[in-house]
Structure formats: structure tokens, C-alpha cells
Amino acid sequence: MTTDEHARMMSANQANWDARTPVHVASRFYGLDQDLDPARWFASFEWDDLGELAGRDVLHLQCHLGTETLAFAQRGARAVGLDFSAVSVAAADGIARKAGLDVTYVRANVYDAVAALEGRQFDVVYTGKGALCYLPDLDRWAGVVARLLRPGGRLYIVEFHPLLNSLGPKPGPGEGPELLLRHDYLSGDGAVHRDATHTYTDGPAVAGATDSFEWMHGIGEVLGALTQAGLTIRRLTESDELPWQRWPHMERTPSGWWRLPEPRIPLLYGLLATR
């Protein structure tokens, strides 16, 4: 697939996230009209891996509404969020202002982040929970991350496990409740095209741009891209919990998150790398 085709698909994704944002801002899923609790989107192992953030420069790539970005500011970081959706960045800025938190938001495609941030480097770059699937080229992305990190800086990825992405979100017509593999675990077959009027949150249909494109990335591909960019892998954690109830038969855990009944499978992973 050519660079022009990738650019066209990412442009469609940008329009789709512009259209999604008003639905997400008003959704019960994000609960922005309730007591804001950014920490609820984090697993406990994330804080262990991220370490002390007070006084650190932290960049959140593909931040959408900035729900996790706010948690970094609450912990004393100099937090910056970057996203390619102008509507998302405007919403995130308003949410931070309402919360009384000092966060800087920048609108840019992640591949253009070095120029958009004027060469600034960070102690921590954070990304995930549905971000990497919107990137067609992980090698290029890893090179950008390496340039954004100071020497000794940390990249932390918390992503939906490729196994989770391979499972359909709900049974098809006439099927039972069993979870089935519906999508590739590994990359290689190009983008998955979706034309969906509703997003992963509650709320009304998306008005306007409903097309989006996603790319599958196995964990091996992620590790390979990062090591080729000169980063060192420090820790990989697999978790069987999600911060929301993806399937009706998931059970609430003591952490407040959700897991499937046995057999246990990985649904989320955390990956720590350093420059």
C-alpha cells in the first residue's frame, strides 16, 4: 500500500474522530458531566511502571479527550496531549480548563509530532488504549517516539491486546454467546475498513463521516519496531482486565475493572521501553 493511500485513510480517520467527539463528550461512557476521575482509566501496574511523574515532562500521544492526560497533570507532571482531531483537541482543552488543570494540547498527526512540538523532548511518552490500531506504519511511529524522548526517557504503551482486537465485539445474527476469532491477530492484510454509525460509547449515531480504517499490530511487531528504533524493552505486562464491560458476561473485579470468566485470556498489555 502506498504512502498516498495511507494518507487518504488517515484523513478519513481524522474526519471520523472529529465526528465522534461530540458523541463521546456527552456519553455516559466518559462521564464528563459527573465527578471527573481520570485515574479510573489506569491499571495499578501502569503507575508502578511510570514511576514518579511530579516535575516530569509527559507527552500523551493520540490523546483524544485527554482523559488520561489529566491524570498526569494531577500527579504534578508538565503534561502535553497531542491528537490529530481539531474537535478532540478543543474539547480536551475545555475539559482541562473546567477541571482547573494546566495541560497543553497540540493538534497534529502523530507522524508530524516532532515538528509540531518544535523539537521538544520528554521524560515520558505515553500512548495507548486504542491508539496503535490507527497507525499504518509502526516503524515510522517508533522513530518519531525515539526522537521525542530524552536520553533515558520512558515510552509507556498500554494497549488492547491483539487477541482482544481479534475477537468480535458481539455475536453475529443467529450465533450463540461464544467469543469467536473474527479478525487477524497479525498484520499483513492491510487496513480493516469500518463504516459504523455508532462508536464504542453510548449515545446517538455519528453525524457525517462514518468511515474509518484500522491496522492490526501483533506484540512482536510492536517490539520489533521499538528495538529497531534503538529503544530498550524493560517490561511487558499482560492483563485480563478492561476498564469497561465489553461483553455482557464479564465480571466486575475488586479493582473496579472487568474480566471474562475462565479461561482467562489477555485483554490489555503494558509495555515499558527506554531510550
UniProtKB/TrEMBL annotation:
- Give residue ranges for domain Methyltransferase type: 59-155
| GO MF terms, alphabetically ordered | methyltransferase activity
Domain of life, source organism: Bacteria
A single BP term in Gene Ontology: methylation
What's the protein name?
Answer: Class I SAM-dependent methyltransferase
Please provide the record's keywords in A-Z order: Methyltransferase, Transferase
Q: Which residues cross the membrane?
A: none
Keyword Methyltransferase recorded? yes
Q: Which Gene3D superfamilies match?
A: Vaccinia Virus protein VP39
Q: Please name one Pfam family that this protein belongs to.
A: Methyltransf_12
Against InterPro entries, the record matches this protein to: Methyltransf_12, SAM-dependent_MTases_sf
